[in-house]
């Protein structure tokens, strides 16, 4: 990942206040990076940044707003991670309430681990990530080699990939 990071921001309704406070606290840093958010989170993050903008501040990149989480936004975020388009994920999910799209939440968390991107699920981890020296330099997460998995034998499929 480059000096300018692409940061995914997502929060469930009971955690949106937490995320917005974190954005307020870190807004001078965040406006220098690319932000990709699920729908409602993105709208609130955009409003917060607009409120805080002072003369001379410049938002380097427009915020990308995906669909709302339950309407496919978590899946869009996961797809972007799989495509290498998200460097860091801040996802404040609600540990106290089930969500209608719990399977999508689980899929997003899984794909973030699979691609070994830094993930924060609470504010203190988000604080650690944004204050890490690694945040301010180029960094390439080590990706596991899945070639053995891709070459696995499948019943009914021959070694050259033909269906027998
Ligand atoms: O549901 C979410 C994450 O699972 C967040 O979606 P919104 O940002 O659209 O509220």
Automatic annotation (TrEMBL):
> Top enzyme class of this protein?
lyase
* Active site residues per record: 74 (proton donor/acceptor)
GO BP of this protein? methylglyoxal biosynthetic process
Enzyme Commission designation:
4.2.3.3
Q: CDD domains of this UniProt entry? A: MGS (cd01422)
Where do the MGS-like domain residues begin and end? Answer: 1-164
Question: What does the similarity note say?
Answer: Belongs to the methylglyoxal synthase family.
- Role played: Catalyzes the formation of methylglyoxal from dihydroxyacetone phosphate.
For this entry, the protein name equals Methylglyoxal synthase
Species of the source: Winmispira thermophila (strain ATCC 700085 / DSM 6578 / Z-1203)
Protein's gene: mgsA
């Amino acid at each position: 990942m480059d000096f300018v990071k692409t940061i995914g921001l997502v929060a469930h309704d009971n955690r949106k206040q937490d995320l917005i406070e974190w954005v307020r606290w870190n807004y001078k840093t965040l406006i220098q990076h690319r932000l990709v958010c699920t729908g409602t989170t993105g709208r609130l993050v955009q409003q917060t940044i607009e409120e805080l903008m002072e003369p001379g501040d410049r938002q380097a990149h427009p915020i990308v707003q995906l669909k709302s989480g339950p309407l496919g936004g978590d899946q869009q975020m996961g797809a972007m991670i799989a495509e290498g388009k998200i460097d860091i994920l801040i996802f404040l999910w609600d540990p106290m309430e089930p969500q209608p799209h719990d399977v999508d939440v689980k899929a997003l968390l899984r794909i973030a681990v699979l691609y070994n991107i830094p993930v924060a699920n609470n504010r203190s981890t988000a604080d650690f990530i944004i204050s890490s020296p690694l945040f301010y330099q180029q960094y390439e997460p080590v990706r596991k080699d899945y070639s053995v998995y891709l070459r696995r034998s499948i019943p009914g499929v021959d070694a050259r990939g033909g269906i027998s």
